[in-house]
Amino acid sequence: MAEQVLKVAIISFTDNGLEIAKTLQNEFYRSKVFTTREVEETKDIKQIDSVKELMEASFQKYDAWLFIGALGICVRSIASVIEDKKTDPAVVNIDDQGKFAQSVLSGHIGKANELTAQISRILQATSVVSTSSDLQDLWSLDMLAEQYGWAQKCNTELNVIISLFVNRKPIALVLKVKDKGTEFLEKTCPDFVTIYYSLDAVVTEKHEALLYVGYELIQLDLPTLAFHPKCIALGSGCSKDIEPELFEKILCEELQKQQVAIESVMAIGSADIKAEEQAYLDIVAKLDIPLITYNGDELNSIDVANPSEVVKKKVGVYGVSEASSALIANESEWLVEKTKVNTDSGKKFTYAISLVSDFARKPSIAIVGAGSGDPDLLTLKGRAILEVADCILYAGSLVPEELTHMAKEGALVRNSASMTLEEQIDIIDDYYAQGKKIVRLHSGDPSIYGAVQEQMTIFDAKGYDYYIVPGISSFQAAAAYLKSEFTIPEVAQTIILTRGEGNTPTPEHENIADMAKLRATMCIFLSVGIAKKVQGELLEHYPPETPLAVLYRVSWKDEQVWTGKLTELTQIIKENKLTRTVLIVVGEAVGARKNRSWLYDDKWHHIFRKKEKLVK
């Protein structure tokens, strides 16, 4: 209930209480003060003789009643006029010293609990709320539907399920779809609630009640509270002038057969020629949803699952029900493909059902390049993906833990350094099945010694959707640190990214000695343990004085860099006891400042700098 529209009645019984009442009146502009004390009356302050008469005449006319005085007076005053918690106004009691504000009636639906917290802030009073779910910081089950715009169905008394819930009995929660409400439930799930993502997965004997968010009709003996978001697009075509009552009756029966709650239908779609079909107009009015119609070109833009040549000849499209449901849902698949229905009157109609794409639990796997180490060198796209990920697996020995600090609250963040590939895949499988966003965070750029090929092979075999986000490699960070361009005109026009042959063999045509013949800028990864061998192979073709850089964790906070000449490689590594996370760069381009590029020479002409413009 928004504060600006709240209609509030304030009752005081003492002089000090009257001052508190006036303070509260300033905070609730649609408020009126009633008092048993003598007072100069105004439009908004009234003196009363009988609280009982006031309650009988006006209790249901206000959204909230604030009693300032003893709690007993408050309780006796409202006892005879209370009707139903779904319709009764909020009642809050404040002592006449303003020390305590207590929620008395309609804590959830009437928003008395929220009002109590607001008043406690205004008066700097202690808030007293006795609602069990609030005290335990649990969900208010009777408020979730209103809060998130869901329809609600219960196969037993709602209070039965609320009682089980606040007493922390084992509860199953099925999240068939996703929206803001399900994200809230996932983030704040208490330890006695087990989350499932399909009804089939629920082990009913382990639970005393079921909470459900989705479009399915639930038929279980278990006490069940089902929430139905408007997430279903229903497409339909029909015979002209089909009987509205008959259409509604049979459509409801069909939805029951398909185990789809009619409360979840967000819109009905059809062809433009059906825009005035009374059966459609009546049912959308009853359900308070829109009728959305499309022209032939729009309907034919969808590759329907069951095209009909008959329909094409009659109305110029291959399908109405499937195409219109797909257009509304922005989805190319159907929960229920075109289904034909014959009515007793001889009239016919078809329908198809799609889940609106925004509600679909579509998982994703992003293989993200973490960059060279400095969190500021993570790409903007990589950062955005990390911030919304539900699960982050990062190579802890190669990726700074600081990068995971941008993960959202509640995300699973695990260091994969001690895991086998199979253990990592087990976690990914679990989150993929839940329709979650998964990030595999790799050092540098995933395309360079990223060990992603084996993962992608598994993803392909499982049919998982995944994508790669490039990152800044350590060789690029090295060039930045060294203030070097690794391609210098007439000196080095090739960069070789490679590693020496240690425990892991290299292809015989890619040994360092052979590549050294090019005398290109060579960036050597994963080879610090065989530095002596690498140095010998390089010296077969590079001059002994060739510039060299040895970079340890370049761009990390503890980075260290040594420069010298090729003959000093082994000495640098031995003296500094380097064992891993080292990049070796060798070549004339390291630190070079000679040889001007032709690109900006005044004798070099191209599409952006025409020759004639330079003639004086």
Automatic annotation (TrEMBL):
CDD domains, sorted: Precorrin-4_C11-MT
Pfam name, any one: TP_methylase
InterPro entries: 4pyrrol_Mease, 4pyrrol_Methylase_sf, 4pyrrole_Mease_sub1, 4pyrrole_Mease_sub2, CbiG_hydrolase, CbiG_mid, CbiG_N, Cbl_synth_CobM/CibF
Domain spans labelled Cobalamin synthesis G N-terminal: 54-134
Keywords annotated in UniProt: Methyltransferase, S-adenosyl-L-methionine, Transferase
UniProt cross-references to Gene3D superfamilies, sorted A to Z: 3.40.50.11220, Cobalt-precorrin-4 Transmethylase, Domain 1 (3.40.1010.10), CobE/GbiG C-terminal domain (3.30.420.180), Methyltransferase, Cobalt-precorrin-4 Transmethylase, Domain 2 (3.30.950.10)
Protein's name in the database: Cobalamin biosynthesis protein CbiG Precorrin-4 C11-methyltransferase
Entry EC no(s): 2.1.1.133
Lineage start: Bacteria, Pseudomonadati, Bacteroidota, Flavobacteriia, Flavobacteriales
Class of this enzyme: transferase
GO biological process, one term: cobalamin biosynthetic process
Similarity comment: family membership: Belongs to the precorrin methyltransferase family.
Domain Cobalamin biosynthesis central region: from-to ranges: 139-229
Ranges where the Tetrapyrrole methylase domain occurs: 365-569
Domain CobE/GbiG C-terminal intervals: 232-353
SUPFAM superfamilies on file: CbiG N-terminal domain-like, CobE/GbiG C-terminal domain-like, Tetrapyrrole methylase
PANTHER family noted in UniProt: COBALT-PRECORRIN-5A HYDROLASE
GO molecular function: precorrin-4 C11-methyltransferase activity
